[in-house]
């Protein structure tokens, strides 16, 4: 395939999936500005490996794994801590996403509580919870995305949900039987 066709194919895919990637990134990092940065980094990596990515059986899964790996790599660096401390005093000053505003309008308190609770999870637990319960991946699919064993996913899910139960109303958290 010629480069212009390749670029058009990539642009079409990213245009269709960018909002979804941004929502997943937001759930991972808890800040819309950082989510935009994560998506941009992931899209750049995806473009660099587009010749391989477009042949994947599950292109969305490939893109999601790229995003999660980008997030986890950022968390291991000092950059994540620096940006949180120095950007707008630790919180973003505004939230330009109208979809998010509409989604939280029905229960703003629950949305804020969940955001706060998710932000208190360690990065790998947070990624596991987001992949399992927001992206609705199985234990095996989550293990593949995160590059770890199914047992590790189960333990990270259990720890993450236990922490969320302590922070939130227990009726809002799925039962552990659903995570096995």
Please name the CATH topology of the largest domain.
Rna Polymerase Sigma Factor, Chain: A
Number of domains: 2
- Output the structural class: mainly alpha
Low-confidence stretches: 81-95
Coarse morphology: globular
The level 1 CATH classification of the largest domain is: Mainly Alpha
The largest pleated sheet is described as: none
Mean pLDDT: 81
| Count of extended strands | 0
Could you give me the name of the CATH homologous superfamily of the largest domain? RNA polymerase sigma factor, region 2, helix turn helix motif
What would you say the CATH architecture of the largest domain is? Orthogonal Bundle
Would you mind describing this structure in some detail?
This protein is an all-alpha fold. It folds into two domains: 1-105, Rna Polymerase Sigma Factor, Chain: A, CATH 1.10.1740; 107-180, Arc Repressor Mutant, subunit A (Orthogonal Bundle). Helix content is 73%, strand content 0%. The protein is built from ten helices and no strands. The chain has helices spanning 3-29, 32-48, 50-53, 59-76, 79-86, 98-105, 108-119, 123-134, 139-146, 150-167. Helix 1 runs antiparallel to helix 2 (32-48), helix 1 packs across helix 4 (59-76) and helix 8 (123-134) packs across helix 10. It is globular, with a radius of gyration of 17 Å. The protein starts with a helix and ends in a 13-residue tail after the last helix. The model is unreliable at 81-95 (pLDDT under 50). It holds the Pfam family Sigma70_r2. Keywords: DNA-binding, Sigma factor, Transcription, Transcription regulation.
